[in-house]
Amino acid sequence: MHTLFISYEKFRFIFFFLFSSARSVSRDAYNRHKDTMTILRHQNQKQKLHMTHAANPKATTYTIFTYP
């Protein structure tokens, strides 16, 4: 009975250790994923802004008035 108790304590410790480490690993992965998504979203916004700017002739061309 005593050995069973010791093995149960060991098992509980190992299980807790594995569970907590797995949780921290998944949290790190989730945070990295969030950061990547944020970067991609900002890149996409910049790209959209650049494309609309290039596609809009009013934004890129200037009328130059010359006097005869």
Assembly state:
single chain
Helical stretch count? Answer: 2
Domain count, please report it.
Answer: 1
Binned, the helix content reads over 70%
N- to C-terminal separation?
Answer: 108 Å
**Stretches where pLDDT falls below 50 for ≥5 residues?**
none
Tell me about the largest β-sheet.
Answer: none
Q: Which structural category do the helix and sheet elements fall into?
A: mainly alpha
Strand content range: under 5%
Give the overall shape: rod-shaped
Order of helices and strands: HH
Describe the structure.
There is one protein chain. The chain is an all-alpha fold and 68 residues long. It has one domain. The chain has helices spanning 2-55, 57-60. The chain is rod-shaped, with a radius of gyration of 30 Å. The termini are far apart. The model has no long low-confidence stretch (mean pLDDT 69).
Task: List its traits.
68 residues, mainly alpha, 2 helices
